[in-house]
Design brief:
Blueprint (H helix, E strand, L loop, with lengths): L1 H23 L4 H18 L5 H12 L20 H4 L14 H7 L13 H12 L18 H12 L18 H9 L2 H6 L17 H12 L6
Amino acid sequence: MKRSIAVIATITVVVFFACQRQVSSPGTTNNVTSDSISAESVLDARAAPVCFEGDVLPIFQSSCAKSGCHDAASHQDGLVLDSYANIMRGEGIVPGNARQSELYQAIINGSMPPKGNPKLTTDQITNIRRWINQGAKNTTNCTSCDTSLFTYSGAVSAILSKNCVGCHTGANGGGGIDLSTYSGVQVVALNGHLVGTITHAPGFSPMPKGGAMLSDCNITQIEKWVAAGAPNN
């Protein structure tokens, strides 16, 4: 009888410590995920600051705050994503924690932008994540710009991708205009439509629609590129 009790006690101790080792093992899925998120947050915090006004707001305005989605008129799901104040309403953004932010989760799980709309690029998603992990601050006037750089690949394409492609892409792009390819951009560059809309010239629909006017530097870059013949350079 004593021997049986001793055996049972020994087994109990062994099982207990085995469980303890399993729970605390750094190799478990939960801990690996937690460690990965922690490392991601640290790297984002150490990365160059992401400017809300220059790097994040244009993404939301072009890809989310448009007719039928999250502009002031449509406000799908009660969300309007056209300004810092509106983006920060509710619990969609948790400053310092992108993985707990509902808006960021909707982006990485593919539900935003919805099916039929161009998905955000890897760089755009990274910028949003870093902005949130860096505190989701309303930073302004912090984007560097060089008017001497006005090639299509080095400046124009990136400006349009950030501010316009969310609405103007593919055969069904807004106004029948596709700004996701060079050939599509070339058409509106050479017929005067591109410069007319971004400078809010009389007779043209001001762009970005519902968003702030492009910076003077960005407008100058596009104007110089168009004046040079809108080359695919």
